[in-house]
From TrEMBL:
This is Protein-methionine-sulfoxide reductase heme-binding subunit MsrQ. Its cofactor is FMN; heme b. Binds 1 FMN per subunit. Binds 1 heme b (iron(II)-protoporphyrin IX) group per subunit. The keyword DNA repair does not apply. It comes from Hydrogenophaga taeniospiralis CCUG 15921. Residues 34-148 form the Ferric oxidoreductase domain.
Amino acid sequence: MFVLGCLPAVWLFWAALNNHLGANPAEALIRSLGDWSLRFLVLVLAVTPLRELTGWSALARLRRMIGLFVFFYVCLHLLAYAWFDMGFEGVEIVADVVKRPFILVGMVSWVLLVALAATSFNRAIRILGARRWQALHRGVYMVAVLAVLHFFWMRSGKNDFADVAVYASLLGALLAWRLWRRFRLRARH
């Protein structure tokens, strides 16, 4: 899984070095890293339904690594934005966050992911306690909503909603499955 998770970054790095990212390589890199962030977010949220539907409990062991790949690609996405769009100018980045709501939403989801990544190790579960750790890590659902909103607002300027609809549908279905499962479990008790 680790090798598979690294392949998109390796390919993008190779494509950037060999000038295969098109006419606007900075934009292509930033968008591709954002797309891979969303893909890994869909994967991490698909682990539990797939595990329950297939009975393959080994999938649960991959969830943490996939979640860390979400964080990895979001950090690369943010780094590419800060470097190629803003030239690492902190004042300009803050001004952009204030000026453009989709950047603000992206930053908020990144901050939430920092909290999740920082507590993704076993010792954090012992320190926080399983119940509080689990409540914190349910923040991934908010990250999913914010990620789709970020993507939607970014694409709305170009009236390009096809990819947004795909990710919104996938993430919406995965979140709806969780709600359905929760209500079904409550009804049994």
